[in-house]
Amino acid sequence: MKTLLIICDGMPDSPDSEGNTPLYTAYHPGLDFLAQNGFVGQLDLKYKKTADTDEGVLKILGCYDESYPGRGYIEALSTDMEILKGDVCFRANFATLNREGMLVDRRAGRDETGLKELVKSIDNIEIDNIRFNATRALGHRLIIVMHHLEGKPLSWNITGNDPKKTNVAVSQITPKTPKGKITASALNKFLRKATKILDEHLINKKRKIPANTILIRNVGHPTKTQSFEQRYNKKACVIGAHSTLTGIAKFLSMDFIRPPDATSLEDTDLNSKTDATLEALNKYDFVLLHVNAFDTLSHDKKRDEKTAFIERFDKMVVRKLLDNIDLNNVIVAVTSDHYSNSLSKGYEHSIEPVPFVICGDGIKSSDTKKYDEKSALKTKKYQNMMKLIL
């Protein structure tokens, strides 16, 4: 029996004044077919204060444990950067400060113009015997790795500096423990130097929205963990385009497949992802397909576009898969890593349980008519997705 797990990043959403969400409003007969013929429930990922993709996906896979390295390391694994024991890694944003030093755009307008040159200008800087290497990541993001030139271990027990809102000043990096003081101090010095370099760079004189500062989003450090195959005795792959999923695949020693023209945005080639999924099901016991655009559209407050994308996803992915696989031989599961609330004025991710559906041979029907947040709220809560689908 093969397993196909589809993670729809940030697809659940907040209800409007009439109680409707993009998922509830959208026409998605493929997802509804799975609900009517399968088992629907709520997956409680046991978030504490915040919800994020790396933690959510690892929890869905049953691989979130004491070996968790932090998202900074997960993202760094998606690059070809050298990462050594004792290093500290950061997932970061290019962002925009105004002349008064206030943060006015956390993503520098999502404009990728010149970011390759900008990141080169702040790469390989040395401060306090610590080398800072930087490289581009997905979209407006970059990865930074701190390495002590004498091989001394650095601490990842420090805060980030992303306020997760605009029209405020960017805070300093602070240590969470005394061991984090050296790392925090050097990182603050680097950020001040990098901001000066970026602000004076010729490219930022030409950009409509300058990428003139850096927000440290997530911290991480190198650790090792059991592979997915060691945990479940399943040959597995991940299909997607998002750097977080690339890093998770590498962390768990799963193969990563990036289909042609696949992106993490609304313009992604869904047909290409579906074709790659069908091909992978011939080679692998377990296939994880990740689709990210739901989350991006929520962050950009494009609620109507999110509804339209759900309909396109249902047609080009779910229904096409159902037309080409045998549910007697493949278990299909669909869920999300977190809610992504397009009506929120603050940070969009929230921590409530997400809907899931599992369909295939031997899966008892839960007599649910539709796949959406409202329908799932009538069902029970579960915590172990892998136990349900394997």
Cα distance spanning the termini: 9 Å
CATH superfamily of the largest domain: Alkaline Phosphatase, subunit A
The CATH architecture of the largest domain comes to 3-Layer(aba) Sandwich
pLDDT < 50 stretches: none
Helix content: 25-40%
By secondary-structure content and strand pairing, the structural class works out as alpha/beta
Write the layout of secondary structure elements.
Layout: E1 2-8, H1 22-25, H2 29-37, E2 39-43, H3 53-60, H4 71-76, E3 88-97, E4 102-105, H5 115-121, E5 125-127, E6 130-136, E7 141-148, E8 168-169, H6 181-200, H7 202-206, E9 213-220, H8 228-232, E10 236-239, H9 243-251, E11 255-257, H10 270-280, E12 286-291, H11 293-299, H12 303-324, E13 330-335, E14 339-340, E15 349-350, E16 354-359, H13 373-377, E17 381-382, H14 385-389
Parallel strand pairs: 1-12, 1-13, 2-17, 10-11, 10-12
Antiparallel strand pairs: 2-16, 3-4, 3-7, 3-9, 4-8, 5-6, 6-7, 13-16, 14-15
Could you please describe the fold and organization of this structure?
- With 390 residues, this protein is α/β, with parallel strands linked by helices.
- The protein has 2 domains: 2-68 and 225-389, Alkaline Phosphatase, subunit A (3-Layer(aba) Sandwich), CATH 3.40.720.10; 75-220, no CATH class.
- 32% of the residues lie in helices and 22% in strands.
- The chain contains 14 helices and 17 strands.
- It has helices spanning 22-25, 29-37, 53-60, 71-76, 115-121, 181-200, 202-206, 228-232, 243-251, 270-280, 293-299, 303-324, 373-377, 385-389, and strands at 2-8, 39-43, 88-97, 102-105, 125-127, 130-136, 141-148, 168-169, 213-220, 236-239, 255-257, 286-291, 330-335, 339-340, 349-350, 354-359, 381-382.
- Helix 10 (270-280) runs parallel beside helix 12 (303-324) and helix 11 runs antiparallel to helix 12.
- It starts with a strand and ends with a helix.
- The relative contact order is 0.25.
- The model has no long low-confidence stretch (mean pLDDT 96).
